[in-house]
Amino acid sequence: MKKFLALALACILTLSLIGSGLAEGEVTTLKVLVRTGDITPYEPGIAALNEKLAAAGLPVKLEWIAQASSGYPDFVNNMLLTWEEDEVYDLIYVQGTAIDPGYLGSQGLLVDLTDLLTGSKNAKAVYDANPILQAQFASCPYLMWPSQVNKVLQFRTDALKACPSYEAFLAKPDQEAYATLFNELAAQGYEGALTTQGIDYLFDTGIDSGFGITATWLKQEDGSYVYSRVSDNFLKELQWWRQMFVSGALHANFATDNWESMENALYTGKVAGIAMKGGAYTVYYETNTVQNFGEDASLTILPPMISESGDQQYKITSNKFDRGWVISTTCKNPQLAFDVLDFMLGEEGRKFDLFGLEGTDYTLNEDGTYNLLVNSSETSIYRIFDSDVFGGIDVQAITTGVPYWPAPSFASSEMTAKFGKADNDFVIPEEFVTAWTACEGLWKEFATQYILGEKTDADWQAFVDTWNSYGGDKVAAYAATVIK
Q1: 97: Cα separation from own chain's centroid
Q2: Is residue 468 part of a domain?
Q3: Cα 70–73–78 angle (5° rounding)?
Q4: Is residue 146 part of a domain?
Q5: Each residue's pLDDT tens digit, 5-18
Q6: Domain for residue 389, yes or no?
Q7: How confident is the model over 430-475, as pLDDT tens digits?
Q8: Residues 296, 338: one domain?
Q9: What is the span of the domain harbouring residue 112?
Q10: What is the helix (H) or strand (E) element at residue 226, kind and residue range?
């Protein structure tokens, strides 16, 4: 029997080697580019991951190359566009809008991952279970990053509990209830109920749905589409936010706050909450707020606003995510490179990404659960997929010790999963990119000026006409041809 099993295992290994284009015993080195200043702290994790890949039957060794965050997009673009083929790295982490995988892929520089995903063992199951991931991948099939993190409203619990209307708000968080709650928060002595970083964050935290904006492109009775930011619904939303600004509920610096000043406003007690990304991002907001004001100031995630028609949701982009992994077309074995990503989306790889190294980041309990020694931000490894889609792993159920995330981070992910729906946005074709950039800048400028009182309803139609003249009408016409 043992001889038969050994023979069967040898046959399986041989077949897997044939599938990867490798001879028995041959190991391929894949060069992996990551965004960090120094790879040295992660060397034990790199060694452990290589061991896991080998044990899983993958004949590969990952050689990691570190590149500092400063200038990273320029480095990646320059490498793919100008380096000699034999110099380009195989697996490449990309991050930021300055790197456009769609464009780079259209130039034949990145591997289209569609067939690799379809034939995968683990990744296909993760993506098949999530319509949002499917939509994001369809918009850019060169990029893999399983995340649906969204912007959410995050408020100090002590401030919320001091609001007389809070319980009624939770029962029906509509326009009136939200306005009452925000004004009660501001009345507690804060400079404003909330602030944010970037005008679009005000709307994309679930407030949109309270005004019937359930998609980026709103379908009209004649079958055409209107961009939500030039719709009558949006004007009503701007009117509501204008009231919040006049009453003092919206912090006076909302239009000028950057990331640092937004966080500082929360950490110094100038505001009761912020409109910002949840999940792993909330770890930092929660940790610092509790450190400064105590456990009672732990953050609570507010639900999306509900409209008169019952709309209540987050519209999560169907466009490509702003980070992820790509494979260069110069990679001599793209199947093997993808197999590494696929392994990381399986149970063993996902747990390694989440929990790190045994003895350093966690110990095992007698029942097989993980006793975490550090939280997610302190894990010693460089994660392949540092994202909020856990691949079916119930992190809270299988961990003890230091929480992987604080409770509000999990709450934000649960809120997103409950109310999140794939948006109908799409990748803007190259021929419209310049015009669309101008259109986006225009609506953000008008929205800011309207809330500040520098523009009024009398200026609305002129704004819409200008938006169309910039090329918005042409993109709207194109939308009708691509939205299903």
Answers
A1: 13
A2: yes
A3: 115
A4: no
A5: 333 333 433 334 44
A6: no
A7: 899 999 999 999 999 999 999 999 999 999 999 999 999 999 999 9
A8: no
A9: 20-140+323-355
A10: strand 225-227
